[in-house]
Write a structure and sequence with these properties.
The strands form two sheets. The chain has a two-stranded antiparallel sheet. Strands 2-3 form a two-stranded antiparallel sheet. The protein is of the alpha+beta class. The N and C termini lie far apart (38 Å). The protein has a domain at 26-89: Alpha-Beta Plaits. 11% of the residues lie in helices and 15% in strands. It has helices spanning 45-49, 75-79, and strands spanning 31-35, 57-58, 61-62, 85-89. It is built from two helices and four strands; from the N terminus they run βαββαβ. The structure holds iron/sulfur cluster (2 copies).
């Protein structure tokens, strides 16, 4: 039997503000950034350019990428002036 519109779960709606952290989207990516700590000069250009805000900064230094939310866009790799990030194809299962 067909459901009525009131019985169908909401879709495409933000029903609670500030809930994006509950949705881990990191498995969408086909390429993943690889950070070379030895080449990194801690200029902090990559964290401010990451559209997902998934490069954490603590006490003035960037830390490892939060891969739960990184979508593999490659912007961090493009903007790094020191060649400290390269993109690597993700393994497929
Ligand atoms: S690949 Fe894109 S989403 Fe992932 S850390 Fe770099 S800029 Fe952020
Ligand atoms: S842009 Fe490059 S050098 Fe600057 S903090 Fe990011 S990885 Fe390090």
């Amino acid at each position: 039997m067909l459901k009525s519109s009131s019985q169908i779960p909401l879709g495409g709606n933000i029903i609670k503000p500030g809930n994006s952290s509950e949705y881990k989207t990191g498995n969408w990516k086909t390429f993943s950034p690889v950070w070379d700590k030895d080449k990194c000069a801690q200029c902090l250009i990559c964290p401010v350019n990451c559209p997902e805000n998934c490069i954490p900064v603590k006490e003035g230094k960037r830390l490892e990428t939060n891969f739960d939310f990184c979508k593999g866009c490659g912007i961090c790799s493009q903007v790094c002036p020191f060649g400290a990030i390269h993109m690597k194809k993700c393994q497929t299962s």
